[in-house]
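Hi P.,

Sorry for the delay on this. The queue was packed all week, but I finally got your sequence through. Input first:
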Amino acid sequence: MATEMLLTMAMLMAAGAGSSQRLHIHQDIPYRGTDDVRQTLDVYAPDGARDAPLLVFIHGGGLLFGDKALVAHVGQRLAAAGIVTVAPNHRFSPAVTHPGHIEDAAAAVAWALQHGQDFGADPRRLILAGHSSGGYLVGLLATDGRWLDAAGVKRAAIRGAAPISGFFHVPRLAPERPQSVWGEDDAVWRDASPAHHIDAGVPPMLLLYADGDDDARKAENVDFAAALRAAGAPEPGLIEVRRRDHRTIFTTLNLPGDASMNALLDFIAAHTLVQADD
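Then the structure:
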C-alpha cells in the first residue's frame, strides 16, 4: 500500500540545502500494476513544487540486491534543491534474467512521465541517474530506445542521463557474474550493452566515477565517453571524483559541497530548460 509523509526536513540543512524544506515522501507506489514490492517506487517531492525538474534515480546492487530505500538521502537532497525524484525498485536475478531488470526500469520511467505532474514535476524536464548497476540500466535506457518504446515512451523524452560508477560493456563483466543475470550467450551480452547501441541520438550524458573505483570500472567510463564522441553524440561530461570509492561516491551525495552532487545539479540545470514550443 502506498504511503505518504510530510516532513519539515531540518536535516536537509546538514545535507547542504541551506534552509529547512517541507518535503513530501510517497512510498511503495506500484508502477507495473502488481503487488510485487520489487515493482514499487518512492517519490520525493518538495512541498509546493510546480513545474520542477523530474529525476528518476535507480539504485545499485549488481542486479542481484539493493533497494529504493538506499536512495533516500539522494531524494531528500534533490528535493531540497527543488527537484522531484522518483526512486524505483526493480526485480533481481535469479528471479529474473535480462531483460527483466531493464523492463522494470523502463516501466518506472514511463510511470514517472505519466504521473510526475501529480507531484509538481514537469515531465518535459526528465533526467535519469543511477549508481553502479543502476547506472548501467540508465545507460541502456539512454542508448537502446527499444525498452522505452515498449513502455510507451520515446527516448527523446530523456533530457539527460547521469550514470554514477556505471558499466557499459556487459561482455567484460558477464563471465564473472552469475549466469542468471545475462545468461551465457555472447550475442545477448553484446545486445545488453549500452556501448553496443550508441548513436548520435543519445541524450546528453554525465559520467561520474571515483578515483577509488577499480581500474576496470574507470576504463568502462573512459571508453564509453570516447565511444560517445566517436558516434557524434552530445559531448559527454566525464568526471573522476577525488577522494571517493565505489561506495562513497554514492553514500556522500547528500554531504555539503559534495563534488558529485554539485556536478549532477549543474547537469540537471543545464539540460532541463524548457522552451515555449517544447
